[in-house]
From TrEMBL:
Domain of life: Bacteria
InterPro entries according to UniProt: Sel1-like, Sel1_AlgK, TPR-like_helical_dom_sf
Name this polypeptide is given: TPR repeat
Coiled-coil boundaries: none
Amino acid sequence: MTDMAQSHYQLGMNYFQGKGVEKSFSEALKWFRLAAQHRHARSIFMLGRMYDKGMGTAENPAEAAKYYQQAAELGYSRAQNILGQNYIKGRGVTADYDQALHWFRKAADQNFSDAQYNLGLMYAKGHGVPKDFLEARRWWGMAAEQGNSKVQFTLGHMYLVGKGVKKNYSKARQWLRQSADQGLPTAQYHLGMMYLRGTGVLQSYTEARTWLQKAAEQNYLDATYNLGKLLSSGSEEVRDPTLAVVLLKQAATRGHQRAQVMLGHHFIKGIGVAQDFQLAYHWWLEAANDGSADAQYNLGIMHLNGKGVTRDSLEGKKWLTKAADQGHTKAQYCLGVMYSTGKGVPQDMDEAFRWKEAAEFWETL
């Protein structure tokens, strides 16, 4: 590699990033091509990336794969790793697990942590090799020790749920914490849930709030919901019903079913927000249409009582039946009462017995 090739590469990167010059993918391509003529591996890799993503040229995965191959053969670990991924996906090349393993191993042997992670995945899934969690863990351990947050989370989650290893909450917390400290929202969420539930750690709503909030700030949906739930019903030191409503609404608006159900309860009871039966009905209807048995039950009760909506026994029965068909015991019991008393439906003791028996069955499980 010549100094001129390195200069051409740096010029290409300047145009690619808009560093000191106006960003121009076409100019970047020109300088990368000049450097590539001197077998400059990074420039060849960047040509592959630009063809892969359609930057300054038409997207062409096959052409990209050719450049990745050239850079990989020159020993460039990033190219080796992406080439391995392409062989997994069949992008620009024919899918081939053996080739994927070959290139992942080449990059992994250079301590490229993403390749070590991918190689571990191959062993964990049994792709091209016999399934072997011990070998997967060995490669993931190498990547995690280098500070790869994604791999640290993977190891932490393995120890948390006991997948491929014996459950070890201490190691789970260790790896999740390292990943969470690097800002990975998935790790922050799971660490927060460990503190929320007291799983392998001393239960701490304050710690749970800290980690769930970090994940929620990165728009991690389950973290937003669980933080809202914690602020709604947690202990005194963290309870904040007004902020809970804000968070639950964020999650509910993004389609989180349990957030929609809980938000409906806040509007029904006027907790942290002005009481509003219509908004409660709105959020429960969203969740009910998405299949939530709790929301279906709540709508049924609203229609039977005429609370916030016009009293309508047929509509109430419809929603209670939907919930009851999913095994919702309260809905089943209500239907049993309706049929036994003839309230809102024709009296039918057989139907009354059927629904009450179903409720008793589910409660014994």
